[in-house]
Design goal:
Elements: H1 3-24, E1 28-30, E2 34-38, E3 43-50, E4 56-64, E5 74-77, E6 80-83, E7 88-95, E8 106-116, E9 131-140, H2 148-151, E10 156-160, E11 163-168, E12 174-181, E13 184-185, E14 191-192, E15 196-201, E16 210-214, E17 225-226
Parallel strand pairs: 2-9
Antiparallel strand pairs: 1-3, 3-7, 4-6, 4-8, 5-7, 8-9, 10-11, 11-15, 12-13, 12-14, 12-16, 16-17
């Protein structure tokens, strides 16, 4: 074995050790993939847990669906706080007003940015990475007593060329886990708004029956639904 090969093996070993340590390290965990705000209640809450060995600075804010300058009719508190190692805190979301529809859901975005504490070490360069988590905030009016699972079979689908259109006659956001056309699974399955429609791209030549699964209120996956038309 020549000197170059030995040097390369030592270098790879030195790189693998910190990578393995990083993989074993903890971090910030948000207690949900979405937050359903019950319009009949004064607030909704979401947990944030620090499973790391050091503190983090947590910053949170709420945006409108399109992320523009318009202010969302919700506040999140505390908007900025320090979360110690091994600790958990609750983020409270409170409605501040807004003329929201009472016959259908409304969608906003919760942003949670976590910044690890900077531990100063002599003659050692460190890299700090801020991680932002973005989850849906869905406001469900008090008058809506059922859930998307109860009416997910009401969606209707039509295909023209390479465009697949879904029509949603229900008052709920339908967040897709999976959409299949025949045996082909689509890559861009997102969601369809209540009382609305949206289209997805289908590869050329792909046709067949449409099946789909939605994501539940708690982040689970529904049964498979089949387009009956």
């Amino acid at each position: 074995m020549n000197v170059m090969n030995i040097w390369l093996k030592v270098l790879l070993l030195s790189l693998c050790v910190p990578l393995a340590q990083a993989a074993d390290a903890g971090g910030i965990t948000v207690g949900g993939t979405r937050l359903i705000y019950d319009g009949g209640k004064k607030e909704a809450s979401l947990s944030v847990t620090n499973s790391d060995t050091g503190p983090y600075l947590i910053q949170s804010w709420i945006e409108t669906q399109n992320g523009g300058a318009e202010k969302a009719p919700f506040i999140i508190t505390p908007p900025l706080f320090r979360l110690e190692a091994g600790q958990k805190n609750l983020l409270r979301v409170i409605r501040t007003g807004g003329n929201l529809p009472e016959d259908r859901e409304s969608l906003y975005w919760i942003n949670i940015k976590s910044v690890p504490s900077g531990e100063k070490r002599e003659n050692v360069n460190t890299l700090q990475i801020a991680v932002k988590t973005r989850i849906k905030l869905i406001f469900r009016p008090a008058g809506l007593k059922s859930t998307p699972l109860d009416v997910a079979d009401k969606l209707t689908w039509s295909q023209t060329g390479n465009r697949l259109t879904v029509n949603n006659p229900t008052p709920f956001y339908m967040n897709f886990h999976q959409i299949n056309v025949g045996k082909h699974q689509l890559n861009d399955a997102t969601f369809v708004a209540p009382m609305g429609s949206t289209s997805f791209t289908v590869p050329s030549g792909v046709t067949g029956a449409v099946t789909w699964k939605i994501i539940t209120d708690y982040g689970g996956v529904s049964e498979t639904y089949l387009n009956k038309q």
